[in-house]
Amino acid sequence: MAKGDPGVTTRGRRAAPRSKRAAAANGPELVQLLTPEGERIESATGPDGTEYRVDFTDEEYRGLYRDLVLVRKLDAEATALQRQGELGLWASLLGQEAAQVGSGRALRTQDMAFPTYREHGVLYCRGIDPIMPLGLFRGVDQGGWDPNEFKFNMYTIVIGAQTLHATGYAMGVAMDGKTGTEDGEAVIAYFGDGATSQGDVNEAFVWASVFNAPMVFFCQNNQYAISEPLERQTRVPLYQRAAGFGFPGVRVDGNDVLASYAVTRHALDNARLGQGPSLIEAYTYRMGAHTTSDDPTRYRIASEVEAWQAKDPIARMKAFLEKQQIADADFFAAVDEQARTESVHLRERVLEMPNPEPVSMFDHVYPHGSAELDQQRAQFTKYMESFEGSAH
């Protein structure tokens, strides 16, 4: 996909000079390359003076839009499946597509990613079949794939635990001598704003810093830790926490796929060159519920959601493509049809998943078995057999 380098100047015909008005609206903290209205900003400067920019071909711009639309449609299909009783639970990424697609496309082939349970967009960018996590949430398998094949670890439910896993992996990368060159390996760990209050995350910051691990901590600040707003999580912008641990932090407009790409690519390149960890705070918004078991109307008002909908990551990318005449109505219609077709196919595959035998839940508890487990299996089997031949 995109091969643009944040250090390469964008072609002049695609970029408009960054206006004082835009800078004033965003403040000095937020790195943004695409406004909510779809206006391109030539470059943006981070808190440490780093200048961020991208240089994509027209096809790469269209590819990013296609990613955003497909990821949202597949996510919506999974939500619908849960509402119809076909999945036990689903954690939607609605509104966070740009942060995930931008950062996911910034990863190089050799880089390793550690997700939470919401990184469906990153998973898609890593080439993993979107059916894979649905098996987990449907309860028909353990939701596993080969992390080494896709350079994408399995979903992690325990809040913040994956940051320690990622840091340990990154320390191993450094100890194996896989950093220090442009072809080096970097590691990225995803988590939310609520996870920054967890001890695991802060311990990961310490270890990554003192061991100069090739780590990028990618925080999707979607404004709520389930029902707790951001002000209950921190008294300062989250990206500023990095300074206390001795590494740089930057806040990016998480609804801007171009800026999310540029900032992540820069941080990953620094990590692979041996310059240590960094923290990215992708400032975005969870438009939907925390999970399908959540009711967000209990803790936030409709006007807040409407204000963020005006910053929709897909709408702004579409506006940019239209204004720059990079895509036409036929392209947008084709993308919508592709998204519809793939979502229908996903639904069909989910409904075709065979239900496992209930007793199989004992199969993968211990690698070498257990006498106590064998006893439990026998009791459960006898219990299930008691229903055979009975009327239901």
What are the secondary-structure elements, in order, as H or E? HEEEHHEHHHHEHEEEHEHEHHHH
- Tally of structural domains: 1
- Main CATH class: Alpha Beta
End-to-end separation in angstroms reads 53 Å
By CATH's scheme, which homologous superfamily applies?
Thiamin diphosphate (ThDP)-binding fold, Pyr/PP domains
Q: Write out the strand line-up for the largest beta sheet, numbering strands in chain order.
A: 1-9-10-6-5-4
Shape: globular
CATH architecture: 3-Layer(aba) Sandwich
- Approximately what portion of the residues adopt beta-strand conformation? 5-15%
Largest sheet: 6 strands, parallel
Q: Give the low-pLDDT segments.
A: 1-28
Question: What is the mean pLDDT?
Answer: 91
> Per CATH, what is the topology?
Rossmann fold
Helix content: 40-55%
- Label the structural class: alpha/beta
- Please give the count of helices: 14
- The gyration radius over C-alpha positions equals 22 Å
Number of beta-strand segments: 10
Keywords: Oxidoreductase, Pyruvate, Thiamine pyrophosphate
Protein name: Pyruvate dehydrogenase E1 component alpha subunit
Cofactor: thiamine diphosphate
GO molecular function: magnesium ion binding; oxidoreductase activity, acting on the aldehyde or oxo group of donors, disulfide as acceptor
